[in-house]
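Ops channel
N.P.: pipeline sanity check, posting one input/output pair.
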């Protein structure tokens, strides 16, 4: 049955009818950038990103379950910046891990935090030493949690790694010790049950593997005189012996294209995209439907339509668009499982940066026919002084209640309307039960405790199934 569904899946993609409408997953009124994502199990997904709130960057997360995306969960709350999160799920410990770079009084340092089994974040731990430490990447390999990042304590920049053994983090160890070139933007993964790191060294892509209790000497993946940058890696199970695929962007053809290499040799650079436009920021996924074969797929940003949009390529498949919008859609990331693929990216279509996402299910199942369709019909008066009537409709267009395939009957699910302030803080929440009919709530400009909120800009957001919509509301003095 999986193979039959996968064939339908591939055919649907080829004819461009697969990706459902994009969903805004960011925080209203704030810049949301640098999304990252990972799969937990079944239909569960974790995502992390950074948001500019109160004049500095903070790290936020959200978790997807069969009933849809949950509310935002804040990891950091500091007066300085927290940036570039990386997130992974730890099957053995049944928890998420998130790493990021934190401004500590003028120096960037790497912090890591784990969740409990209920997805509540615990106390962060600093794992880096001296100098500026940036762009962490985190991955679970067996019982160990590995993190790699770039460090410039003694320029040029080198790659550093550390691992968690179940009780403590190891002393940071150098992956590179380069006296000439900068080594930046590492990504860590699993190669034959060994930690494996790829990174950009000057204008080429390099790799190293941790074997015999030491990092092996770096080896070049590319040697072209053009610029090869932004490496990403994946572990497709169809490649024997736990092999590895590496993707990156290159301008060796006069424009930016996506390249890849793989298996255990890394000797051949294969051009993935051949469009005369610029194709940038590849991000790969281990599984596309045929879990038994572990076929990889990639998402990337391309300006082939005159502005940057998100595109997808499955193994042995043509390029299809995920989202086309008259805005800049960039920095895609992917995750997925046996029955779904999820792509997240950042978009400026609302006048600021937001995180958008699209989850597609196998067998021609998408968000447009699994769950809810919420629409605001009127907010009046707006602006308001004492009260405003928020009118909307949520229709249930589910056709099945099998959550495994992402098809959920929302008539039995509790829906919410949330009010957020301009900083992204939730101030009030209304429970919606009149699914399938026109409905409204009256907001008196108060918070959950009944206290009057200050005048300013607020956002009404409805989360129903997989779809999120929001409306701007102005509260006057």
């Amino acid at each position: 049955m999986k193979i039959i569904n996968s064939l339908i899946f591939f055919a649907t993609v080829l004819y461009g009818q697969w990706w459902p409408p994009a969903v805004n997953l960011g925080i209203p009124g704030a810049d949301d950038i640098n999304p990252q994502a990972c799969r937990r199990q079944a239909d569960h997904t974790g995502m992390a990103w950074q948001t500019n709130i109160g004049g500095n960057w903070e790290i936020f997360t959200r978790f997807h379950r069969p009933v849809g995306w949950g509310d935002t969960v804040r990891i950091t709350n500091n007066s300085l910046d927290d940036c570039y999160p990386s997130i992974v799920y730890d099957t053995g410990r049944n928890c998420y891990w998130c790493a990021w770079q934190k401004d500590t009084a003028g120096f960037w340092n790497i912090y890591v935090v784990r969740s409990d089994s209920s997805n509540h974040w615990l106390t962060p731990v600093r794992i880096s030493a001296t100098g500026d430490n940036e762009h962490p990447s985190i991955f679970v390999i067996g019982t160990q949690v590995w993190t790699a990042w770039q460090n410039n304590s003694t320029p040029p920049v080198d790659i550093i790694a550390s691992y968690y053994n179940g009780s403590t983090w190891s002393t940071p160890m150098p992956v590179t010790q380069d006296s000439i070139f900068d080594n930046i933007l590492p990504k860590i993964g699993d190669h034959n049950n060994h930690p494996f790191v790829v990174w950009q060294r000057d204008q080429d892509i390099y790799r190293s593997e941790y074997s015999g209790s030491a990092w092996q000497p770096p080896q070049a993946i590319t040697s072209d005189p053009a610029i090869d940058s932004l490496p990403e890696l994946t572990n497709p199970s169809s490649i024997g012996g736990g092999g590895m695929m590496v993707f990156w962007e290159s301008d060796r053809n006069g424009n930016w294209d996506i390249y890849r290499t793989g298996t255990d040799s890394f000797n051949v650079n294969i051009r993935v995209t051949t469009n005369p436009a610029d194709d940038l920021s590849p991000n790969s996924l281990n599984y596309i439907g045929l879990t038994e074969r572990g076929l990889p797929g990639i998402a990337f940003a391309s300006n082939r339509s005159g502005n940057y949009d998100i595109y997808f390529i499955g193994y042995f498949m043509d390029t299809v668009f995920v989202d086309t919008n008259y805005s800049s859609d960039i920095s895609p990331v992917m995750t997925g499982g046996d029955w779904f693929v999820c792509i997240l990216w950042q978009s400026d279509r609302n006048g600021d940066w937001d995180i958008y996402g699209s989850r597609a299910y196998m067998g021609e199942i998408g968000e447009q026919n699994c769950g809810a369709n919420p629409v605001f019909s009127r907010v009046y008066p707006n602006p308001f002084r004492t009260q405003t009537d928020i009118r909307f409709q949520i229709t249930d267009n589910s056709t099945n209640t099998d959550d495994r395939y992402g098809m959920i009957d929302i008539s039995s699910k509790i829906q919410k309307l949330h009010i957020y302030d301009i900083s992204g803080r939730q101030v009030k929440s209304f429970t919606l039960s009149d699914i399938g009919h026109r409905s409204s709530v009256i907001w008196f400009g108060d918070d959950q405790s009944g206290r009057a909120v200050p005048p300013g800009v607020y956002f009404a957001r409805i989360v129903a199934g997989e779809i999120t919509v929001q409306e701007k509301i102005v509260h006057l003095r």
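N.P.: looks fine end to end. The helical segments are 2-14.
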